[in-house]
Amino acid sequence: MKKTLNWQLQEIANIYDEAPLWSAPFGKLLLDNIPMKPNCQIVDIGFGTGFPLIELAQRFGKGSHVYGVDLWHTAIQRAKQKIQTLQIDNISIFEQNAENIPLKDSTIDLVSSNLGINNFENKIAVLKEAYRILKPGGKLCITTNPIGTFHELFSIFQTVIEGMQISTKALENYIAHRSTKEIIIHDFTQHGFQYTKAETDAAIIRFANAQALFDHGLLRIGFRESWEKLIPNEYKNSFFEQSIALIQRTIDEAGCFVMSIPILYMEFEKKA
Ligand SMILES: C[S@@+](CC[C@H](N)C(=O)[O-])C[C@H]1O[C@@H](n2cnc3c(N)ncnc32)[C@H](O)[C@@H]1O
């Protein structure tokens, strides 16, 4: 057994915030459902700062090995720090695009991806690679946020855009680019996978101030740039001002503005 870890040490405080709040409910659904057995060879695709890569390595433990694949250099440095602090010795990291994973054909039991593969630029190439490395009977387990994500916000955007009498096409395409369970089944089964299981959950993000929604770190990192692209430059300021005013009206009436996040876990098998 490894020694206990002293929570008073700076390096332990540094890693205590181990999963981003955005990723955690998706990761929980994945960790509650991912098939488990001893002596597994696992690949976690798109692990960011180490999630769920590190959690998988710790839960599967000795005898199992987890390979992490990601191309985000600075996040990988942070993941490596956590792995070192926790003295984990069953992880290998490949800093590269998951379209090419340096592992042999049919050698992996489990491929996981939390908020990953389904949003990748070249999802099909990564799916083919996951299929190649999986053993027959091996499982691919993913989570994603399907259509319905932030629908309350997009309905406000729709009202504002219609009021400005500009095209709603970009917003409609943006909403439609998110997957559904059926689309994922269609895409993955086209590449040899057999659909075996789906589980759903839901989360919310609430705001007590409309401006705060657009200034929130998560939304500035992951979403706001894509919203800005929905509106022609000359209308942008007015669009955000009007959206904030409408959201604030809801907050004044209801006390807060709630944004829904549907959570989808899906499992596929490489046919034996
Ligand atoms: C939304 S983040 C999720 C990170 C982590 N799994 C979590 O739950 O917090 C998506 C991750 O996929 C990585 N990624 C995107 N495209 C990739 C690709 N083609 N190959 C490998 N990683 C990729 C990104 O660098 C990022 O770390």
The rough form would be described as globular
Total strand segments? 7
Task: Please identify which CATH superfamily of the largest domain we are dealing with.
Answer: Vaccinia Virus protein VP39
Query: Please, what is the average pLDDT?
Result: 96
- In terms of DSSP E residues, the strand content is 15-25%
Task: State the main characteristics.
seven-stranded mixed β-sheet; 2 domains; 7 strands; binds S-adenosylmethionine; 23% strand; alpha/beta; globular; Rossmann fold; 272 residues
General description of the model:
By secondary structure, the chain is α/β, with parallel strands linked by helices. It folds into 2 domains: 10-144, Vaccinia Virus protein VP39 (Rossmann fold, 3-Layer(aba) Sandwich), CATH 3.40.50; 151-174 and 204-259, no CATH class. 42% of the residues lie in helices and 23% in strands. It contains 12 helices and 7 strands. The chain has helices at 10-15, 24-33, 53-60, 73-85, 123-133, 151-163, 169-176, 181-189, 210-215, 217-222, 224-228, 236-254; strands at 41-45, 65-70, 91-95, 108-114, 134-144, 193-207, 257-270. It has a 7-stranded mixed β-sheet, sandwiched between helices. Strand 4, helix 5 and strand 5 form a beta-alpha-beta unit. Bound molecules: S-adenosylmethionine.
Topology of helices and strands:
Layout: H1 10-15, H2 24-33, E1 41-45, H3 53-60, E2 65-70, H4 73-85, E3 91-95, E4 108-114, H5 123-133, E5 134-144, H6 151-163, H7 169-176, H8 181-189, E6 193-207, H9 210-215, H10 217-222, H11 224-228, H12 236-254, E7 257-270
Parallel strand pairs: 1-2, 1-4, 2-3, 4-5
Antiparallel strand pairs: 5-7, 6-7
Residues 20, 23, 27, 45-48, 51, 69-72, 75, 97-99, 114-116, 120, 126 line the site of S-adenosylmethionine (SAM).
